[in-house]
Amino acid sequence: MAVTANSLALRQAYIEAGIVTPKSGNDALHVALATVGECPLIVSWNFRHIVHYQKVPLYNAVNALHRYGALDIRSPSEVIEDEDQDI
Fold first, then answer.
1. Distances (CA, A) of 45 to 7, 9, 51, 65
2. Which residues make Cβ contacts (< 8 Å) with residue 7, sequence separation at least 6?
3. Assign residue 52 a region: left if phi > 0, alpha if psi is -120 to 50, beta otherwise?
4. What's the whole-model pTM score?
5. Is 9 helix (H, G, I), strand (E, B) or coil?
6. Any idea what DSSP says for residue 82?
7. Measured between alpha carbons, how far is residue 14 from residues 1, 9, 47, 86 in Å?
8. How many CB atoms lie within 10 A of CB 23?
9. 38: left (phi > 0), else alpha (psi -120 to 50), else beta?
10. Domains of the chain: which residue ranges?
11. Using one digit for the tens of pLDDT, what is the confidence trace for 12-69?
């Protein structure tokens, strides 16, 4: 997905909301690109800035303020099916 003015503006909104610092702008851009691109789910190992139980609702609050849909953010262990597990 191409970086657009909308995704850059949303990244800046996350930074201004204090979800991440400017130093973590690439992580914020990752979430912004997924949001603007209407991706329903991010799967990431980045527990510090993306897959963080306190930050996910904050990302979605900013998304709602900017009229974007909610985004589900999970770790790989939450979405990979265990072979021994019955569904």
1. 22, 25, 7, 27
2. 1, 29, 32, 33, 35, 36
3. beta
4. 0.88
5. helix
6. P
7. 19, 9, 16, 39
8. 9
9. left
10. 5-78
11. 999 999 999 999 999 999 999 999 999 999 999 988 899 999 999 999 999 999 999 9
